[in-house]
Amino acid sequence: MDRRHLLRDKLDRWQRERRQRGKSSQTMDEFYQRAYTLVTSPVAKKAFDLKEEPAKVRDEYGRHNFGQSCLLARRLVEAGVRCISINYNGWDTHTDNFNSLKKSLLPPLDTGYAALLADLKQRGLLDTTLVVWMASSAARPKSTAPPEGTTGRARSVLMRWAGRRRENRYGSGIIERLCGVPEGRPLRVEDVAATIYRAVALTATRSTCHPRNGRSR
Predict the structure, then answer these.
(1) Fewest C-beta in 10 Å: which of 63, 77, 169, 200?
(2) What's the CA angle centered on 42, arms 122 and 53, to 5 degrees?
């Protein structure tokens, strides 16, 4: 918390000095300049002040870290932020998977995620916003019941497609009894990335930059 307060003070001081010096003495790279402008803008600062939200709205999202992060995400969308990431850690449940899901992981997820979608829709923002819920896991997508005690997680991705009403479901059936192989058309990581690129009007096969290490992006 001390480091965060120090960072905030430095940003505030930089903003004041920048206004006093004028454009002639600004030597920052263009992209750094844009980043600083974003985080120090009055609109962005206002978006981070959750106290402006009614108590009822904050309760609907859930008075927990994930719920309030979802609420902050909605406020950032309203402020014009183009890409927002919410972290919800603790899903690497190698032991006691089902109790962890039922008692601690799923309740905040249900309230926060549902409130975010409902709130975006009510404010007319859902048709221009792509909401992606996904996770990564190195474990096998299987789950074995006790007494064996080992548990795994199936990899799932849920998208609320921006501006689309149609529901598409892939891998809805399970060939193996304990979950492991999707039925029908399997999707790969690059398919998920291409879907996101399409939503923001980018071409997935186009190289946009060439860094020094030779990797195209």
Answers:
(1) 169
(2) 35
Q: Return the number of other C-beta atoms located less than 10 Å from residue 62's C-beta.
A: 22
pLDDT value at position 67? Answer: 96
pTM: 0.70
CA 79 from centre of chain: 16
Query: What pLDDT sits at residue 9?
Result: 85
What are residue 170's phi and psi, to 5 degrees?
-120, 140
pLDDT for position 151: 52
Nearest to 109 by CA among 90, 130, 81, 129: 90
**What are the residues whose beta carbons fall under 8 Å from the beta carbon of 123, sequence distance 6 or more?**
74, 78
Distance CA 154, CA 97 (A): 12
Question: Residues 100, 93: contact at Cβ < 8 Å?
Answer: yes
The DSSP secondary structure of 85-97, one letter per residue, reads: ---------SSSH
Region of 206 (left: φ > 0; alpha: ψ -120 to 50; beta: rest) is: beta
Q: Of 211, 216, 217, whose CA–CA distance to 197 is shortest?
A: 217
Give mean pLDDT, residues 50-68: 96
Q: Distance between CA 105 and CA 101 in Å, rounded?
A: 5
- pLDDT reported for residue 149: 47
Residue 177 has pLDDT above 90, yes or no: no
**What distance lies between CA 31 and its chain's CA centroid?**
22
